[in-house]
Amino acid sequence: MILVLDFGGQYNQLIARRVRENHVYCEVHPQSLSLEKIREMAPKGIILTGGPNSVYTEDAVTCSPEIFNLGIPVLGICYGSQLMAHLLGGKVETAPTSEYGKTEVTLNEAGKSSKLFEGVREKSICWMSHTDYIAKAPEGFTVTAFTPVCPVAAMENAERRLYATQFHPEVMHTEQGKEMLHNFVYSVCECKGDWKMDSFVKTTIAELKAKIGTGKALCALSGGVDSSVAAVLLSKAIGKQLTCVFVDHGLLRKDEGDQVEAVFGPEGPYDLNFIRVNAKDRFYEKLKGVTEPEKKRKIIGEEFIRVFEEEAKKIGAVDYLVQGTIYPDVIESGLGKSAVIKSHHNVGGLPDFVDFKEIVEPLRLLFKDEVRAAGRELGLPEYLVSRQPFPGPGLGIRIIGEVTAEKVKIVQEADAIYREEVAKAGVEGLGQYFAALTNMRSVGVMGDGRTYDYAIALRAVMTSDFMTAESAQLPWEVLQKTTSRIVNEVKGVNRVLYDCTGKPPATIEFE
Ligand code: XMP
């Protein structure tokens, strides 16, 4: 196991992810973790992360210098490297020139024979982000890399297996960062590399079992990847002590409610209590006459919580509330300063009246693709594991203007056709694609008669982070086939449009 000690930098979980990619188990803990605990954990290596402080300020976060005497290899990154230098008698100062972004780093002769840089080119681009730097390496250390303005871009004491880099090997922009972390875990720490997703699954189930014991847990299951994987982990750990409440708000994609029930309900393979609440009439009633997008979102979000609470009350007090929070949610909720473009439901909205003692978030440390891998490991069906993101308010925000049962049906049918055709054509690389119902009606002709029907908008975007997106250039044949099927098969639609707008200026969803 590799232990990452967190000094408050931005990329800490990314380090853990990079280590896990090397099939080595990794945990991130606060920098205050006691020496005793570290000894007990017996990691094969320790990584000290970056952080926002300066080592020489009074309130700088630090760790015990004894960490370097445990005989365990240590890699200090950015702030971690400065801390290593500072605690071992080197000199850290404000750099005359700060370095931010892509920077060419050169290995010196010692660097070329360093275990950390095996297979790394003499000159390569690394990601820098620092205002302080190591002005003088501690005694016993050798400088291994430099830049024109940073004399100690990397240093090491190979005998004591202490390594430090001023740059961030975990960040994608460090061209050979992957090799460096690979070298650290294999050549320096001598890890075996036998950790895989099945180890995460096994360990997590065992931990949940130990933590929850005979207690009861409650999970709001949406049928999305995250809550589904979290629910299965819990069900494997505690079986029927887990109750999953699935609120079907009538704004799901075609047949989705039944698909969720098939997997998690009594006919499915998992051992848990499953409650499906068919609440669509309630939601449609509340949405009657409402056209303003934010109002619709609020109504759906609040009603969702009310329904969930009502079910929870019937169950009574539980010990744990299960949340499918994943790592990007953790980062995003930490930001909170950006302007509210849309009030995302199911992010941070906790029910007030559910009686529970603690929240469990078994996926808190995973990225989305890791969650999917865990889902496959747990035997969840592929259609559920590879499901594209679907917003909490569901089709409610893919129907412009007032939501009615008739409009939901139209958009469900059109969307199902679209997804079928995209899948049939094997189009790859789409971040999200769906049909939306514009509130526009226009004149058409069918047979010999005039029609005055709705226009469906098709959207497909390519994105890696969903913060920005490009409209995808779908093959024309796919668009034509989808269009012809929609106008022929979906009653009430006589026109299909394709949305070519990127984000910004449009958002991915229509409301
Ligand atoms: P926008 O429309 O803001 O969407 O460009 C970005 C991503 O977020 C999803 N989205 C939501 N997800 N609750 C969610 O869980 C919401 O209220 C919500 N609104 C938008 C959207 O589907 C896209 O993936």
From TrEMBL:
Signal peptide limits: none
Binding site for ATP: S222, G223, G224, V225, D226, S227, S228
Enzyme class of the recorded protein, top EC level: ligase
EC number: 6.3.5.2
Domain annotation GMPS ATP-PPase: ranges: 195-387
Recorded catalytic activity of this chain's protein: XMP + L-glutamine + ATP + H2O = GMP + L-glutamate + AMP + diphosphate + 2 H(+)
Pfam families: GATase, GMP_synt_C, tRNA_Me_trans
Active site residues per record: C78, H168, E170
Cellular component terms (Gene Ontology): cytosol
Keywords: ATP-binding, Glutamine amidotransferase, GMP biosynthesis, Ligase, Nucleotide-binding, Purine biosynthesis
GO-annotated molecular function: ATP binding; GMP synthase activity
This protein's pathway: Purine metabolism; GMP biosynthesis; GMP from XMP (L-Gln route): step 1/1
CDD domains reported for this sequence: GATase1_GMP_Synthase, GMP_synthase_C
HAMAP family the record matches: GMP_synthase (MF_00344)
Subunit structure, as described in the record: Homodimer.
Function, as annotated: Catalyzes the synthesis of GMP from XMP.
Name of the featured protein: GMP synthase [glutamine-hydrolyzing]
